[in-house]
Amino acid sequence: MARLNEHYGKLAAGYLFPEIGRRVAAYQKDHPDARIIKLGIGDVVLPLAPAVCDAMRSAVDEMGTEAGFHGYGPEQGYDFLREAIAKHDFAACGVDVSASEIFVSDGSKCDSGNVTEIFAADARVAVPDPVYPVYVDTNVMAGRTGTVDARGRYAGLLYLEGNASNGFCPEPPKEAVDVAYLCFPNNPTGAVASRAQLEAWVAWARKTGAILLFDAAYEAYISDPAIPHSIYEIAGARECAIEFRSFSKTAGFTGIRCAYVVVPDALEGKLGDKTVQVRNLWNRRHTTKFNGVSYPVQRAAEAVFTERGRREIRERIDYYMANAKIIREGLTKLGLDVFGGVNAPYVWVKTPKGIDSWGFFDRLLDGAKVVGTPGAGFGACGEGYLRLSAFGKRDNVEEAVRRIGTTL
Ligand code: MLT
After folding, report:
1. pLDDT confidence tier of residue 15, bands split at 50, 70 and 90
2. Residue 193 · residue 233 · CB < 8 Å
3. Model confidence pLDDT, tens digit, residues 366-381
4. Which of 14, 15, 257, 362 is the most buried (most CB within 10 A)?
């Protein structure tokens, strides 16, 4: 029989969200009349912005003509989209990112998993805890870890603990690593990093030679003007960071698929004895394994940056953030300790009475018919918390808070 990748055998459990889906489906099967409200996986619920639909529709019509047909596009993305991104997501905030440093893709989940390929097989990796599970699982698959322990931690990874005392924003570690993942606004805790905290990370990375993998998928949800949206707002970050951005949560593209990665020209790494541009490796991977996002989807993404697109998208983000406020304030009134939900669409709730994460998940599912995501699914430091997503319809969010109140 063919030998398989032994590292998959180390994975402690199935991927978190399918596992939750399986448990919810089993509950629904046993309780067919239960009207379950899902605030688990962070998936958008509002329809696409009309500006996005119009752009996609007209791109499809264009593809149906002799003159407007497009076959394979550039793997890195069409210039029209890369230029719109450079202009609106970066130049508009005074940040220096050029179109040629932008690689358009089909999602940040794929990008943050794929990026593991360009680092040494034995690269030392630091991850926050709690953490978006993709960062951990893809490094396990790549063989960079040993086995998992009883707390769900893999030997070989450096875990950076986030907790209520450090505002779920760990400091740079004392020891050197090759790669450190950061995600701000944070999934799952909804925490944000201040400019000073990001400066500390950039200074540390430059001093130790580490590369920061900065996941900014939720940057559009930042409302505090003092909080940086991009790691490149910090001087020196072009020499030490890769940034991931997505249209999924910003513009409701979870079902459409479009994202991008920024790999600055100034970012270098070691290839044997040579110092090389990281961009060249990412470009090599991308052009070998990816054939580009479809033309209609890239036109739809471009429409996000038009005046109309920006207005319509802002309305949707405001809607979700009003949900976050309802959840945050509602649960606070119920006496729960809550974090996040101010500059991020996730509310991170301390479980009451010392109940564990999965216990609280079961209690909310069975009692309130509300689905959250158990904090323990995001790492050992997530134990004792539960994440609620603000991506819901308003009446469901209000009803969920009301039902939780009767269940505690
Ligand atoms: C989440 O709920 O954490 C996200 O939806 C997962 C993702 O973006 O892949």
Report:
1. confident
2. no
3. 999 999 999 999 999 9
4. 257
Question: For the structural domain made of 10-47+310-407, what CATH number should be given?
Answer: 3.90.1150.10
Atom from ligand 1 closest to the CA of residue 40: 2
Binding site membership of 109 for ligand 1 (Cβ less than 6 Å): yes
Atom 5 (ligand 1): residue with closest C-alpha? 42
Ligand 1 atom nearest the C-alpha of 132 is 3
Residue 185 has pLDDT above 90, yes or no: yes
Q: 52-307: what CATH class?
A: alpha beta
53 phi and psi angles, rounded to 5 deg: -65, -45
**Cβ(370)–Cβ(36) under 8 Å?**
yes
Question: Which amino acid residue places its CA nearest to atom 6 of ligand 1?
Answer: 42
* CA-angle at 390, arms to 388 and 395, nearest 5°: 110
What span, in angstroms and rounded, lies between the C-alpha atoms of 363 and 407?
8
Is the pTM above the cut of 0.90?
yes
The end-to-end CA distance of the chain, in Å, is 53
Tokens of 93: 């905030």
The two three-digit tokens of residue 92, written as one number? 């508009």
138: three-class secondary structure by DSSP: helix
CA angle 129, 131, 136 (to 5 degrees): 100
Cα of 1 vs centre of ligand 1, distance in Å, is: 35
Q: Report whether residue 41 contacts ligand 1, using a CB cutoff of 6 Å.
A: yes
Domains of the chain, by residue range, sit at 10-47+310-407, 52-307
Q: pLDDT digit string (tens) for 289-317?
A: 999 999 999 999 999 999 999 999 999 99
Residue closest by Cα to atom 1 of ligand 1: 42
Indicate whether residue 250 lines ligand 1 (CB < 6 A). Answer: no
Can 10-47+310-407 and 52-307 be said to share one CATH topology? no
CB of 53 sitting under 6 A from ligand 1? no
Ligand 1: which residue has its CA nearest to atom 4?
Answer: 42
